[in-house]
Amino acid sequence: MKFLKYFSFFLAAAFLFISCQKEYSYEDGATRGSLVKDAIGDCGPVQVNGIYKKDSVLGAGNFVDVQINTTTTGTYDIKTDTVNGYSFRAIGSVAIPGINMVRLVGSGKPINAQTDIFSVKFDTSVCKINIDVMLSTGGGTTAVFTLGGSGSTCTGGGPSGTYTSGIAMTAANTANVGVTVQTPGSYNVSTTTANGVTFTGTGILAAGATSITLTAMGTPAVSATPVTTPYSITVGTGTCGFSITYAATPAPATYTVTCGTGSPAGVYQAGTAMTSSNFYVVSVTPQTTGSYTITTNSANGVTFTGTGVFSTTTAQSVTLFATGTPLAAGPFNYTTTGGTGSCVFPVTYTAGAGPAAYTINCTGATLQGNYAAGVPLDPSNTMTISVNATTAGTYTITSTTVNGVTFSATGTLVVGNNANIVLMGTGTPAAGGSFAYPLSGSGASCSVNVVYDFLIATIDGVAKTFNHNLTASVDNTSVPGFDILTIDGFAAAAGNEEFLTGVGKATGVPLTVGTYTINQFVTGVIVGANYTDAASTNFAIASNPAPQTPVFTITITAITATRVEGTFSGPLKDANGSGAVLKTVTLGSFSVKR
Prior knowledge:
This protein is mainly beta. Helices cover 1% and strands 54% of the residues. The strands form nine sheets. Strands 34, 35, 36, 37, 38, 39, 40, 41, 42, 43 and 44 form an eleven-stranded antiparallel β-sheet that branches. It has a seven-stranded antiparallel β-sheet with strand order 20-21-24-23-22-25-26, with no helix packed on it. It is globular.
């Protein structure tokens, strides 16, 4: 909302509401210890990854890395409290006591744009992390910035942390890179991948000179000698870099391996690839410190492996992670190699699921994300429906392609009613308006309506669309005594060309269907409009509320709590309404979600 820029009587106001809930949910495991904190008691060091937007569902890239100082080995299940509609959780195991990095992955969907404060609890300690949520539109602009330095040198501080061949990276392994930001917005930067390691970073940048922090991910190769590895970053036409020297892998330890007391963790099904949730924990007694590699035979297409360094000779556990895709159902035995002694443990794979039998229910279907004509859909655009499965198995649900967009999902169903299925939207909407999407399962079918927003106008005879970052919002703080509804959109994802229009009534007086003009200012109605062309010249309604001919007119044709539709036309002047150059606006219309 930019009414201060465009109208003497329209002033946009942004607010920041800080949510600080103190409740938390935590399920204790066998691991004991405490969270690593900074001097003021916040979680530290901490790495927040991902972009957090109002009304956008979190994905695998939304996570927080914290550190725990453990005194025992075992498993953990750590959760934050739920704040502003989303939360974070980590499930795993600790093989070596001491400082360990824990990755809490986000789930849910931020409700408001604000700063959220989460509580993380491990054992008896608690620390805080802050997450900044930006607006789903407007704040979604991609940042434009240049890198500091060039060639093999980046400014900004460079790498920090300890780097050892064969030892996995943690949240302490980072690199700071200087940048100069020309256009504020979000960023997602990665280095080249070398020696099994990549540095990545995401977040929001303000204008000016600053630095971004990239966090290392991966495990460098085992090496008997130090290894120096260069990494480079490219943004636009600029490139800079830095080098990491990985210390030699410690000499091999001597140790004895025996089986643990538990069963292999995770789900084991023929045809389903293993993930980080598939692991087995063995017991190890080191006789000397040093590096270790414990692996198993390959059976049914799957192998279990664990690597690391023993820093003490205290008896401890080691987690062996499964890799591969099982070929068949049935029991298979796995025997460890590495150290002395061995462990033999069984894994039973279930049969792969066949096709499910199910019916689709579109009643109560929900849509997430923003939908506007000409704007490509992204992972936040989802459709949630429910199904009734009468036979368990796999499913594929795909809508008919309508208006350039398709919704689809695949997965596995168990027998039961009202299982929620999330379909991902793909494509670019060709036009604005309401479109029905037929969905079909193995039984009954139904359809879901999707409404695509639009803001269009003909300016000096040239038809234009303003469907990027399109919003309809109400502000009741900028002009005392008025509630102002603003419709605002850009002609492209990047660029200056923008159209904004709005109408306001006295606070408490509902805005209803009807025609409004600038001449009504003295009778309790405010009307505003502004067009910014590609050269950043502003054309607006004259700021003087006295009658002008012809008048700029907005007609609200439909308005509800969730959507506003209407038309508009009239003259605009340069210099924010006080100049002599005219722009004539005709055939303006809009339909926008509120």
